[in-house]
Design a protein that fits this description.
It contains eleven helices and eleven strands. About 5% of the residues have low confidence. Strand 9 and strand 10 form a beta hairpin. The chain is of the alpha+beta class and about 325 residues long. The radius of gyration is 26 Å and the shape is globular. The strands form three sheets. The protein has a five-stranded mixed beta sheet with strand order 2-5-6-7-8. Strands 1-3-4 form a three-stranded antiparallel beta sheet. It has a three-stranded antiparallel beta sheet with strand order 9-10-11. It has three domains: about 220 residues, Alpha-Beta Complex (Lambda Exonuclease, Chain A), CATH 3.90.320; about 30 residues; about 50 residues, no CATH class.
């Protein structure tokens, strides 16, 4: 079965694209629904789909990643000999348009498909019936090379392959702004079947009915709750049914305070024992270090604006020591 492609017009209103996203489950949503995303959660996805969350323009990292794709695409093409079209195309699975994704591109064999930027004008519709080699997902990562594809990205990739009906996806990842690495991901139908079941249950049981999923302990859910309920109304809610949870919360808060006091107490004793020394050992192994570190900041930003830039005059350097613990290893002599 062939996926339905519709390339997004770059001039189209962002509001229209956001509305399209809310009408289905995208690749990045799936990781949130499954609870494997570092940035999302079932509740956050639900709140977005039912229109409770305000529009999000993205973090600076996300915006930088979009601009980085302009460099990643030709870099990927040069490194692989493939040709990428259908950038930022919307894909909907024909038998269930709730299953959808916005892809970074489709990769074609350059020698089969042809060469030349003019061929991008076909919008990925493949009038000659040429099949793509794979999907392409571009990432800009301030990190070392991946030992394996992170779970939340692998989930995103499998969902894209499901929606596109393809068997392979390439992650074109630019590490540290210069090191391009290509990580292939093959289709795993068992994983996809599991995702489809969970997504369909989530959509029918929560989005269609407007019933929120269970609240979890993720930071993403905390952020979503703050955004959904930004105001305050002078009224009282009977929470007798949550008495045990409130008691648990109080106890956890008290325990967290006790742990923080214990951590601080241990640190104070260790610092006192080190004195001016920078390292401490246990036996022959390095155990702790307390080294100086400096931070330079603008000392008077108002003066800097009024009198012009002069970092040597308007910056201030603060020196402090950072206490760290170390895994056992031979101490340096």
């Amino acid at each position: 079965m062939t996926a339905v492609l519709d390339v997004v017009d770059e001039e189209a209103e962002r509001a229209e694209w956001l509305a399209w996203r809310r009408q289905g489950v995208g690749a990045s949503d799936v990781a949130g629904i499954l609870g494997v995303s570092p940035w999302s959660s079932p509740f956050k996805v639900w709140a977005n789909k039912v229109g409770l969350l305000p529009d999000f323009d993205g973090t600076k990292k996300m915006r930088a990643g979009k601009y980085a794709e302009l460099m990643i695409r030709p870099y990927f093409e040069d490194e692989t000999g493939l040709f990428v079209v259908a950038e930022q195309a919307r894909i909907e699975w024909p038998t269930n348009p709730v299953h959808r994704a916005t892809i970074d591109g489709l990769a074609f064999d350059r020698h089969v498909y042809g060469v030349g930027r003019d061929l991008r004008g076909d919008n990925g519709n493949n009038p000659d019936g040429v099949d793509p080699v794979a999907l392409v997902e571009m990432k800009n990562e301030a990190s070392k090379r991946w030992a394996r594809i992170p779970t939340h990205y692998a989930t995103q990739g499998q969902w894209q392959m499901h929606c596109a009906g393809l068997e392979r996806l390439f992650f074109a990842v630019l590490h540290w702004g210069w090191d391009l690495q290509v990580y292939p991901l093959d289709r795993n139908q068992t994983d996809i079947d599991f995702m489809v079941r969970r997504v369909d249950e989530f959509w029918s049981e929560h989005v269609v009915t407007g019933t929120p999923p269970p609240i979890d302990d993720s930071e993403a859910t905390a952020d979503a709750l703050d955004a959904v309920y930004p105001g305050a109304v002078e009224e009282t809610v009977d929470m007798t049914d949550m008495a045990d949870r409130i008691t648990e919360w109080r106890a956890a808060k008290a325990k967290a305070g006790e742990i923080a006091d214990r951590v601080r107490g241990c640190e104070n004793e260790i610092k006192a024992r080190l004195g001016n020394a920078t390292t401490g050992t246990v036996g022959d192994a390095l155990a702790v270090s307390w080294r100086p570190q400096s931070r330079t900041t603008v000392a008077n930003s108002k003066a800097l604006i009024e009198r012009g830039p002069s970092p040597r005059v308007f910056t201030s350097t603060t020196t402090f020591r950072v206490l760290r613990h170390h895994k056992p290893k031979a101490a340096k002599r």
